[in-house]
Design brief:
The strands form four sheets. The protein has a seven-stranded antiparallel β-sheet with strand order 3-6-5-4-9-8-7. By secondary structure, the chain is α/β, with parallel strands linked by helices. It has helices at about 45-55, 60-70, 75-80, 85-100, 105-110, 115-125, 150-165, 200-210, 265, 270-280, 295-310, 340-350, 365-375, 390-400, 405-410, 435-440, 445-450, 480-490, 495-505, 510-520, 525-530, and strands at about 5, 15, 130-135, 170-175, 175-185, 185-195, 220-230, 230-245, 245-255, 285-290, 315-320, 330-335, 355-360, 380-385, 410-425, 430, 455, 470-480. Helix 7 crosses helix 8, helix 12 runs parallel beside helix 13 (about 365-375) and helix 14 packs across helix 19 (about 495-505).
């Protein structure tokens, strides 16, 4: 077979998988890169992957087997350090096989695929820094703080956080030490505490680096800056909080290279992407982006804003606060003090500018909600709200005083999302099925249970021994179909509205989450934590 033509799961373009480049997301289990959209299929559905490999020619299977069977972790580590590519590793492994006894590192250096210092760094660190879940067992010691100063401690803590993929760093004074915790994929991890004698110098250095107001010392403050950590640019968002043992710091790390995502990377399935993009093309109407708190609705909102900017549409965004500055959008930071009043006042001021699209980071009160409803009859309004489901988001807007006839006329779409942890691809293994009574408690019948298969992560250095690596969003997208508008007009409760939306084509989040369990992307425990109503 001279070629193997496949269809890209993301852009639906056809390409030759044999000639395509291997991706480097998972060196032990790589996939191919689409030459049109430059997306690999690491995040495609399990069915797509199974179909791909079922029809793949022996050559592709042999190459994957070569990568999977090597016991030398050097290539794996260099790829994760972004110092080597999967095609280069395959070439080096082929040469190593011909020359029995040769060392992979020597081959990589001789062929100028990797620098000697990078190979030495990979061999020295073995690619991991030990961390444990705070709810787990004993954890390994980290740096020798006593041989450092405040600046080096901050650099080390932030650098390690970036290398480990932490979203937040918590530095909290205790009675006899300073606690350091990282939030990674929803888990909290810790390193050894910083000695108490560094507390004052750390506070001074943080205040200096983030340019905090000295007159507000002892009060809660926020600040941000952009810096480079672990070869990537990051926005660092600081929040200080006075405690009984001193000022604590929470630093949010936003990787500028990965923060903005396209709709496929966000987790929207193809049918939902088609539905939401159709509504975003409208010249008027209301689009609600909803989720429970800390479930990623803000990230989705910035991705939607990026979509508008790329389409060169005129957009004004009201945010409290502005977490990401985007060229091409007029972003207005709404004062967090008395935010409800400020949001409504700012929105009235923006009307005079007559943008094509208005985005709001929240709908805090009745005045703002009613003004949004008025504006959505003539321009496109996209608003972020907190809700447990798309149907409940509509109910929440009605509770803020938006009349049913008005809402039924302007609603273009309402999305809701949750975040689930993904099973580590390196250590994924089959798991025992939960007890029948447990499945029944979550509304899963014996017939449905028979269609499921269950997986878990055993735990490995790649996932910090917790069995999960990375998170993804699951969505439901309710559009303003005739059945939905009728249900809103007749003031049906949220469960009935959801039933009508499902009949009109919406795939509920519960169904999406159960599909991820079936495909081995996440665990049944993650599904159970979401507490969907059957």
């Amino acid at each position: 077979m001279s070629d193997y033509i496949v269809t890209c799961w993301n852009c639906l373009g056809e390409f030759d998988a044999i000639a395509a480049v291997w991706c480097s997301d998972d060196p032990k289990n790589p996939t191919k890169l689409c030459p049109f959209c430059l997306r690999c299929f690491c995040q495609a559905s399990e069915r797509y992957k199974q179909d791909f490999w079922r029809g793949a020619p022996p050559r592709l299977h042999q190459e994957v087997q070569t990568l999977a069977s090597t016991k030398d972790r050097l290539g794996d580590i260099l790829i994760r350090m972004k110092k080597l590519t999967t095609p280069q590793l395959l070439e080096a492994l082929a040469e190593q096989k011909k020359n029995a006894g040769s060392r992979l590192g020597d081959i990589l250096i001789a062929r100028q695929m990797a620098k000697a210092e990078d190979v030495q760094a990979a061999l020295r660190t073995q690619g991991v820094s030990p961390l444990s879940d705070t709810q787990g067992v004993a954890y390994a010691a980290s740096p020798v703080w006593e041989h450092s100063d405040a600046q080096n401690i901050i650099q080390y803590v932030l650098g390690l956080a970036a290398r480990k993929g932490a979203s937040d760093v918590h530095i909290e004074p205790k009675e006899d030490a300073i606690s350091v915790r990282y939030r990674i994929d929803g888990f909290y991890f810790r390193v050894d505490s910083i000695p108490k004698n560094f507390q004052d110098s750390l506070l001074e250095k943080v205040a200096e680096v983030f340019a905090l107001d000295p007159s507000k010392q002892g009060k809660a403050q926020g600040a941000r800056l952009t810096t480079r950590l672990a070869d990537n640019d990051y926005d660092l968002v600081l929040q200080t909080l006075p405690t009984t043992h001193g000022t604590s710091f929470t630093i949010k790390l936003i990787n500028r290279a990965t923060f903005l995502k396209d709709f496929a990377t966000l987790g929207l399935e193809l049918d939902d992407r088609v539905r939401i993009m159709e509504e975003l093309r409208s010249s008027f109407g209301l689009v609600l982006l909803t989720a429970p708190v800390f479930s990623g609705a803000g990230t989705t909102a910035y991705s939607v804003m990026s979509h508008f900017v790329q389409a060169q549409r005129d957009i004004a965004s009201l945010e409290s606060p502005v977490l990401w500055r985007m060229e091409g959008a007029r972003q207005v930071e709404v004062d967090s003090d008395n935010r409800g009043l400020r949001m409504e006042e700012t929105l009235r001021s923006v009307i005079a500018v007559r943008p094509e699209i208005i985005m709001l980071s929240s709908v805090p009160d009745r005045g703002t909600a009613q003004l949004v409803a008025q504006l959505a009859s003539s321009i496109l309004v996209v608003a972020v709200m907190s809700a447990q489901s798309a149907a409940q988001a509509v109910a929440a807007l009605q509770a803020l005083g938006v009349a049913a006839p008005a809402l039924s006329g302007i609603l273009s779409a309402a999305t809701c999302q949750r975040l689930v942890r993904q099973i580590c691809r390196i250590c994924r293994t089959e798991a025992e099925a939960p007890a029948p009574q447990t499945l029944a408690h979550h509304g899963i019948s014996a017939e449905e249970a028979a269609t499921l298969q269950f997986f878990r992560g055993k735990g490995c250095p790649s996932c910090n021994k917790v069995g999960y690596r990375g998170r993804r969003a699951i969505f439901e997208v309710m559009t303003g179909a005739a059945e939905v508008r009728s249900a809103i007009l007749n003031a049906l409760p949220a469960p009935d509205l959801e039933s009508m939306a499902t009949g009109a084509g919406m795939v509920p989040m519960r169904q999406r989450a159960l599909s991820l369990v079936r495909e081995g992307v996440t665990t049944f425990d993650e599904f159970a934590k979401l507490r969907f109503q059957a």
